[in-house]
Amino acid sequence: MKKHNNLVFIILFFIIFIISCSQPEPPKTRIALSKGSPDTSYANYYNWIKSLDSTAIVMDMYTMSIDSAMDLFRKCSGLILTGGTDINPAYYDKAYDTVRCWPIDAKRDQLEMRLLDSALAWGMPVLGICRGHQMINVGLGGSLVVDIPQDRGTSEIHQCEDYLKCFHTVRLGQNSLLAEITGARGGDVTTNHHQAVDALAPGLKVSAYTSDGIIEAIEWADTTGKPFLIGVQWHPERMDLNNPLSGAIGRRFLKECRGK
Predict the structure, then answer these.
(1) How far lies 173's CA from each of 113, 130, 186, 216, 225, in Å?
(2) Residue 35 pLDDT more than 90?
(3) DSSP for 160-212, written as a single string
């Protein structure tokens, strides 16, 4: 009887082993960064996502040709348009004003326009950060303030010499997806920008702003039939994950990417 029981146990063990091995692994969450290699100054974006989901595969679209990036992008679960230099003002009918812009990266402008268009066409979640927030607005037909100090002359701090120690307060629109996600009415965030959303693109609404009226976050005015999309002017990837204006945003984005 003992030998019989041992044989049954061995058979059951192998059956369970075979079944477990035959089960397909859950699909990996693949996040496309418009620019964000982990071994560059853009590493914060990579580290932010990995700290929220260590199993996520994070890919930098900028390191390859635009066509190759678009081929790889089809396999991704979501898009983060990251921060960086200024968008060519020709994209929002201010081509005459390039002198006040930081060095323009034509490849990056073209890449991000194509990534954004494709993501929205495919129903892919999109999160824009700083420049990426501005790219969402420009890509959908809006415009930018070319230089906040000269064009608006505000007293609010938006950019400091030491950008890692530069903060200001934002207020959230309470009837917004951003407020729902974060559970916050506002808070202090990192800031490092001399440009801002000006004329809002059709279909978008403001979901956060500073005391001087600068737009700090945007989202769909009507989400019906549209993929997740939020743009924030601040840098959640540089902030404590316990801050709802950082961790909660990243977690919700990843949840949307997993289709949950």
Answers:
(1) 27, 19, 9, 11, 22
(2) yes
(3) -SSGGG-EEEEEE-TTSHHHHHH--SEEEEE---S-EE-SPPTTEEEEEE-TT
Identify the H or E element spanning 207.
strand 204-209
- The residues annotated as belonging to the active site are 130, 235, 237
Confidence grade of residue 25 (pLDDT, cut at 50, 70, 90):
low
Segment 27-43 shows an average pLDDT of: 91
- Distance separating alpha carbons of residues 174 and 185, to the nearest angstrom: 7
Supply the DSSP string of 49-73, one letter for each residue. Answer: HHHH-TT-EEEEGGGS-HHHHHHHH
Q: What are 146-197's pLDDT values in tens digits?
A: 999 988 887 677 888 777 788 889 999 999 999 999 999 999 999 989 999 9
For the chain, the structural domain boundaries read 29-257
User: What's the topology of domain 29-257?
Assistant: Rossmann fold (3.40.50)
Tokens of 239: 């902030």
Q: In 3-state terms, what secondary structure has residue 13?
A: helix
Radius of gyration of the chain, Cα coordinates, nearest whole angstrom: 22
Separation between Cα atoms, residue 42 and residue 125, nearest integer Å: 21
Tell me the pairing of strands 78-81 and 57-60: unpaired
Closest CA to 73 of 91, 49, 57: 57
Which pLDDT does position 63 carry in this prediction? 95
Mean pLDDT of the chain: 90
